Amino acid sequence: MTSDKTDPQKQITEQIRRVLDAGSLAVLVTVLESETLGAGAKVLVGAGGDATGDLGDAGLQTAAIEEARRFMRARDDAKSMRVSEFAPELEHLAKSLLMFERIESEPRLVVAGAGHVGASLARLAALVGYDVALIDDRAEFVARELFPGKSEQAIELIVAKSWGDSLREAIGEGHSVSIAIVTRGHKQDEDCLRATIEARPAYIGMIGSKRRTNIVLDKLREEGFDSEELKKVRAPIGLDIGAVSPEEVALAILAEIVAERREGKGTPLSEWRRSNLL
Predict the structure, then answer these.
(1) What contacts 24+ positions apart, CB below 8 Å, involve 94-98?
(2) CA–CA distance, 202 with 25 (Å, rounded to integer)
(3) For the packed helices 210-222 and 186-199, what is the interaxial angle rounded to 10 degrees?
(4) Helical H runs in 81-143?
(5) Radius of gyration of the chain (CA)
(6) Phi and psi at residue 133, in whole multiples of 5°?
(7) What is the mean pLDDT of the chain?
(8) Edge to edge, what strands does the sheet with 78-82 contain?
(9) What's the predicted TM-score (pTM) here?
(10) Can you give the residue ranges of every domain in the chain?
């Protein structure tokens, strides 16, 4: 009997668990069809290029790891490819079919501020499939009875005794985490932004007019925060869709968060057609 320490499948399963627990990213490569390789052979490629598992051919192993690293930079969740498509030099394996699958924890959104916009954003993000935490220093704004819907039950509701401490705890290691700061004032914005920048999440956005957001950013710049890090803050938050209602503003915010995560451009998909008709 193969021990757990030498069983490739169990090693891969354990490594996948670690990737998900850390909020990191990996790509699982599986042999689907091959005349010379064993179907089902797998290798897990981490964000740093480390590999767990064996596809059964040294040349293919190297080529598959390189392709997996390219796949990480794409937006696909899964893609099947013939070896001839990414490693034509491996002629003896040209017809072999491999599956590349993105392995990552579900995206997390931390919303600071449970007013009309924050609550609407939390509800919408939960419906889309985000792991959502909604934070406010007013307990009545994060009462469970305000979020009775089926998808809303999964929203983590947090009463903040300290905005900074609550944000840092909710963000964790910051991988695949987006932060939307939609509080009610400058002081709360400043406290949240300080904690958020220190945690270095994947996305930071802050609501408010250009004047209001500039006041907050300038204050942190004066305090010695890195200007390059401050430039990454999306402020005002969201895409320009002409939003007016809290629900529309929430949609504009989530659209930008998804575009950032998926590397979307945020432009109309029909733009190419209209340009060609001119």
Answers:
(1) 95/33, 95/34, 95/35, 96/31, 96/33, 96/34, 96/35, 96/36, 96/37, 96/60, 97/31, 97/32, 97/33, 97/34, 98/29, 98/30, 98/31, 98/32, 98/55, 98/64
(2) 13
(3) 60
(4) 83-86, 116-128
(5) 22
(6) -120, 130
(7) 91
(8) 51-53, 42-46, 25-33, 97-104, 78-82
(9) 0.76
(10) 8-104, 108-262
Measure CA 117 to chain center. 21
| Least confidently predicted of 8-12, 229-233, 241-245 | 8-12
Q: Check residue 6 and give its pLDDT.
A: 66
Q: Give the number of other CB atoms < 10 A from CB of residue 241.
A: 13
Q: Mean pLDDT throughout 63-90? A: 92
| CA-to-CA separations, 48 to 66, 106, 115, 239, in angstroms, rounded | 11, 20, 40, 32
Confidence of residue 277 (pLDDT cuts 50, 70, 90): low
Rounded to whole angstroms, the Cα distance separating 66 from 49 reads 8
Taking only the tens place, the pLDDT of each residue in 102-116 is: 998 888 999 999 999
Reported confidence tier of residue 28, pLDDT bands at 50, 70, 90: very high
- pLDDT of res. 5: 55
Tokens (6 digits) for 192? 């949240």
Q: How far apart, in Å, do the first and last CA atoms of the chain sit?
A: 69
User: 108-262 falls under which CATH superfamily?
Assistant: NAD(P)-binding Rossmann-like Domain (3.40.50.720)
